[in-house]
Amino acid sequence: MTSSIYLATLGIAVSLASCTTSGPRLVSTPVRKGMTSAQLVSAFGKPLRVEHHPDGGEDWFYNFGSQQHAAHPVSESKITETERSHSVGNATSTTTTMSQAPVHLSPSGRVVGAIPLGSVVVE
């Protein structure tokens, strides 16, 4: 009986350890002056929105931001009439801070002007 409880507990622990959640991620490719609109779409996907200018230029809006990762130790004991267990490990968290900012494109479809700070964030 004890070995079956051990195996069940081990199976649950392995299942929990392999769980991951997906969320926003930073794209490692930076926005650079001179990139074409096709290169922007290839690297970051379609913009969140587009504003057209009278001169034929456009502002493409993407989320720009940063991420912080943290790990916190976890230690938990549980005692019941029939079992004793102790769990030790790490809980991890990722905090993503982001805001929409424009990437300016010239009438010929190339990135011009100031580049927003941070990395492009995609979901």
Please, could you describe this protein's structure?
- It is a single chain.
- With 123 residues, the chain is α+β, with helices and mostly antiparallel strands.
- The chain has one domain.
- The chain has helices spanning 2-17, 37-44; strands spanning 25-26, 49-52, 58-79, 84-105, 111-112, 119-122.
- Strands 1, 2, 3, 4, 5 and 6 form a six-stranded antiparallel beta sheet that branches.
- Strand 4 and strand 5 form a beta hairpin.
- It starts with a helix and ends with a strand.
Main attributes of the structure:
6 strands; six-stranded antiparallel sheet; 123 residues; rod-shaped; alpha+beta; disordered N terminus
Give a quick summary of the entry.
By secondary structure, this protein is an alpha+beta fold. The chain has 2 helices and 6 strands; from the N terminus they run H-E-H-E-E-E-E-E.
